[in-house]
Amino acid sequence: MGLVTIVAVESGTKPASPAATLSSWRFDPAANQLEITLEAKTTPNYFLLDQPLRIVLDLPNTQLGKVATQQDYTGAVRQVRVSQFDKNVTRIVLELAPDTILNTGQMVQLQRTTPQADSGDRWVLRPQIARQTSLPTTLPPATLPSPQQPVVSVPPLQPSPTASSAPNELIIDFGQPLPTTAPSVTPPIPTPSPTPSSNVTAPVIVVPASPAPLPNTALPNTAMLSRQSPDVLLLAGTRLNLRYAGESPLLLKAGVPQPAKMVLAEDVRDRNLNAQSVVIDNLIAPAGTTIIGEFETDTRGSRFVAQAIALQGQNLPLAAESGILDAADKVAAANATTIEPGKIVQIRLTQDLIKPGSD
């Protein structure tokens, strides 16, 4: 069941009024605050959708003015989209990062500031962020993997002289999602690890590799995944971020599969311990690795379906797909949508990725 929460800011029946025009909007990523200006009085309302988590703001009796229709950001809000939902409603969609959690008491704050006679009404919408987790931006240098069964640790956000000197490192299972809060764990690493490389600047996805459970944490039976075979590169359930690398917008239409030039947005790495309990780092696939697949569009929206990944000079079968990208925009068979250059799309593996030459 999807998360649907509808909130009306003001209630009561109002007489018909002249159509408003959305004359400007601005999003401040530092304050997580959306500001809109309407030329005539109207009362916005919002609701929430999940998979991915989105805040949908509808402006009744409002026409879309000459404003930007899409902008990408980093942080809790990844993207803002503006469209004419129907002839009477302008819609603004704020897509949140997958690791963002809203307050349970008040998820969104929407209020009107003092109206300006010369510029129209000004509204401010603020997602009430409870917390946000994120992956580290730097990792130690890659070395050859160990045949020993490893324990995985995620390095701290700030670089340290050695990986073993970081307090409260997180130990997680291979194939398990990152928890929203990190438990306090002292990793059993008696010797220092190699100093982090200064030339690693791109964000990375860390693929855990240990079957050891989280300390004092009960794991569901359906999530007890472990790397039993050295032939497995990535387990089913692993999530990867892809970037559309085309130079021009890609037009998507319902019923017409559209191949796309997609690449990994960040390195994919496997970090573990060797026989001497030294943290090693194995690069599985670098950022920019080609992902072969296509966008499929129907009345529900568009999704990307991966078919193969280019590794070690050959295309390995890759079974993975994204969620619906634009369900909140109500893309129908009569309409079309576009994928802008640089757009980030997250996919989830539905089957294990096996090393080349393995059965």
UniProtKB/TrEMBL annotation:
Composition bias, Pro residues: 138-148
InterPro entries: AMIN_dom
Positions of the UniProt region annotated as Disordered: 134-165
Domain AMIN per the UniProt entry, residue ranges: 24-102
A Pfam match: AMIN
Protein name, as recorded: AMIN domain-containing protein
